[in-house]
Amino acid sequence: DSFKGKVILLNFWATWCGPCKAEIPSLVELQEKYGDDLVVLGFSVDDTPEKMKPYSEEYKVNYPLLVGNGREDVQNAFGPLLGIPVSVIIGRDGIIAKKHTGIATKEQFEREIQSLL
Asked: pTM to 2 decimals?
């Protein structure tokens, strides 16, 4: 409810995932640039909060990180997730507009976000 009317970029990731690490700087930049209209959410598929905290500080994550450990129901709702990262872009209307399996570039995300703003 608190994200109603915003574009959401939901990123499924894990601290052990190399491609996930590569995507984070782009997600941070997108959150900074489009923060009024965009919500980036990081959904860690299997990390504990204790493991996520130093990771988020190291990568200067400026968006909410959600603990997905034990929440396969959420992963299944957007899946199946055959690997990570997976990013789901949800329009202001709450409908999934795009789903990326594997790493995506900042430019790809930006094009898709801008078309929904």
From this structure: 0.91
Asked if 52 contacts 44 with a C-beta cutoff of 8 angstroms, the reply is: yes
- The question of whether 22 is a catalytic residue gets the answer no
Residue of 8, 9, 10, 20 marked active site: 20
Per the annotation, the verdict on 5 as an active-site residue is no
Structure tokens at 94: 């709450």
pLDDT tens, residue by residue, 17-27: 999 999 999 99
C-alpha span between 6 and 38 (Å, rounded) = 6
Q: What are phi and psi of 44, to 5 degrees?
A: -75, 120
Task: Give the 3-state secondary structure of residue 32.
Answer: helix
